[in-house]
Write a structure and sequence with these properties.
The structure is a single chain. Strand 1 and strand 2 form a beta hairpin. This protein has one domain (3-69). Helix content is 45%, strand content 12%. It contains 4 helices and 2 strands, in the order αααββα. The chain is an alpha+beta fold and 77 residues long. Strands 1-2 form a two-stranded antiparallel ribbon.
Length: 77
């Protein structure tokens, strides 16, 4: 499932956290929320997986969230 599909399905609290902490390692509750709405899938276009600092989203997902935060039209790639 792509980010543009799961974004409106996660809690507003998770979306707010993702905007405020864009590019940072994900908190367990944010991961759980994303996984709950995606059925546990980790699409490689948006999920970078584990890094040395913890689970993270891909650069593409970070850019997508930044566009949303700036009230721009994010690409659905």
């Amino acid at each position: 499932m792509n980010i543009f599909e799961w974004w409106p399905l996660v809690d507003a609290e998770s979306r707010d956290w993702l905007i405020e902490h864009n590019g940072e390692p994900l908190l367990p509750n944010v991961i759980a929320d994303i996984m709950a709405v995606t059925g546990g899938t980790t699409d490689s276009e948006w999920w970078a997986g584990e890094s040395a600092v913890g689970p993270q989203l891909s650069d593409e997902a970070v850019d997508w969230i930044e566009a949303v935060a700036n009230d721009e039209e994010p690409t659905a790639d």
